[in-house]
Amino acid sequence: MRRFQMLINADDRYAQIRREIYGHFSEHLGRCIYQGIYVGEDSPIPNIHGIRCDVIEAFRQINMPVLRWPGGCFADEYHWRDGIGAKSARKKMVNTNWGGVLEDNSFGTHEFMELCELIGCEPYIAANVGSGTVQELAEWIEYMTFDGVSPMAELRRENGREKPWRVRYVGIGNEAWGCGGNMRPEYYADVYKRYQSFCKNYSGNTLYKVACGPSGDDWNWTETMMQNLRSGGNWAADAIALHFYAVPDWNHKGLAAEFDEADYYTLLGTVNRMDELLTRHTEIMNRYDPEGRVALFVDEWGTWYDVEPGTNPGFLYQQNTMRDAVMAALSLNIFNRHAKRVKMANLAQAVNVLQALLLTEGEQLIKTPTYHVFDLFKEHQGGDAVYCFTQNVPACDGRQLPMISASASVKDGTLTLTAANCSLSEEAELHCRICGSAYTSVSVQLLTEDAHAYNDFAHPDRVTPAAHSAALENGMLTLKLPPCAVAAVTLR
Ligand code: AHR
User: Fold this and answer.
1) In the structure, which protein residues have their CB atom closer than 6 angstroms to any atom of ligand 1?
2) Is 133 helix (H, G, I), strand (E, B) or coil?
3) DSSP SS3 for 158
4) Active site amino acids
């Protein structure tokens, strides 16, 4: 057992943790949309206009704040007009990025917007820059948001939607440095500015425009974007979006549930690089934008393993273990600590793809360990991040991975502390001095299991949170964390 001193100053609020940091991503990839989210109106699986009821319920439970769609790489070959109107007449296409399967466009703009309404989350539209046109994007915005008389608003009404939707977030291109067009940052910055010029604010809807940001540690991408994103004295983008997947070796990814101790620590060490990435990209942004007008999003993050044996390699279906839960906790704590510049993050992806929240098989649905972490952390949404110092040691000799990961926030008189013990062998005892406000009650929810444990359709609740004990006396919180555990502590 190792003892750790911690200090939280509940009065030292340094940034609001935007709800969108707890955001998600749904791409037309594998079984994310079809079968995962959308089963069609004729399905025996309970649904609302084809959208699975169990999925809606699960997303609502974690207060999902924002959902990104339709890609990913898919976004840059998506033509929105193919996904509106009578389903039988919708154009079919090949999903060239993901398995070459047929895409029948039965899930399109109306279905996605209804999904967001049912969840109660903001839609985040990823627009096609790679193979689309400026006019196509301009008309999509008009179709979704214009309330008056116009060709696109009329078309929307013909398709059964009288009132416009509210669309706050629009991403202009995805991975422009890769699948989105293989562009140089100098070239993309100009393309971005051209496309965004025609994304208009209609009928009281104000767009928040997101430019493609760097891949991992591509500092030059961030530098070049920040040099070029000013237009007429104003910033042409509200955010740039970083992508970073926790993959130690792309040639040997391994299976989600098959790993040894060294693999576990190597993966979490890679996850922890997110801290350095956010620090250094923020430093670059600070030089050009000290006022913090342009946010840093992380609109794709997560683990990426080999696909489960026997599944389509293009579908990116992987299991999700307690290791992924610790990974998620580590990442979310890092995002919370960077809340001054980081205003959105989107886990890849919501259902049946990569580090999924939910896995489905026919009518069955399970919540993954990662899902439970989002549930445990949800009280941070909209809270104020507060100073939280943790004494630390490496989780394992010779690794750049602290054993304890933590962050704290306050909201409506409640303090939320989330902590993970990354060690596989050592228990931790946290002694946390709480300064500032006085709290009198404490409750804890704990997620812990063997790192390899996962939920499957025969054992849907093998990894599930449970109440845990802690003591609070005279402003001193004492809490034991077993190895490989994630806790959410609520002080009132
Ligand atoms: O999330 C899977 C893919 O990863 C996305 O389509 C792409 O943007 C990224 O490379």
Assistant:
1) 27, 71-73, 174-175, 300, 348-349, 354
2) coil
3) helix
4) 175, 300
Among residues 262, 272, 224, which one has the least CA distance to residue 404? 272
> Ligand 1 centre and the CA of 73: distance in Å?
6
What distance in angstroms lies between residue 72's CA and the mean position of ligand 1's atoms? 5
Rounded CA gap, 357 and 349, in Å?
7
Take residue 38 and report the two structure tokens written for it: 């959308």
Which residue's CA is minimally distant from atom 8 of ligand 1? 72
The angle, 0 to 180 degrees and rounded to 10, between the axes of the packed helices 109-119 and 134-145 is 50
Query: What pTM did the predictor assign?
Result: 0.97
Any idea which architecture 18-381 has in CATH?
Alpha-Beta Barrel (3.20)
**Does the domain spanning 2-8+387-491 belong to CATH 1.10.1670.10?**
no
The answer to whether the CB of 323 falls within 8 A of the CB of 264 is: yes
How many whole angstroms from its chain centre is CA 59?
13
| Chain segment 246-286, per-residue pLDDT in tens | 999 999 999 999 999 999 999 999 999 999 999 999 999 99
| Mutate which of 300, 318, 346, 347 for ligand 1 pocket (most atoms within 8 A of beta carbon) | 300
pLDDT tens digits for 428-458?
999 999 998 899 999 999 999 999 999 999 9
Å from CA of 339 to ligand 1 middle: 24
Domain ranges (residues) in the chain = 2-8+387-491, 18-381
pLDDT in tens, 349-380: 999 999 999 999 999 999 999 999 999 999 99
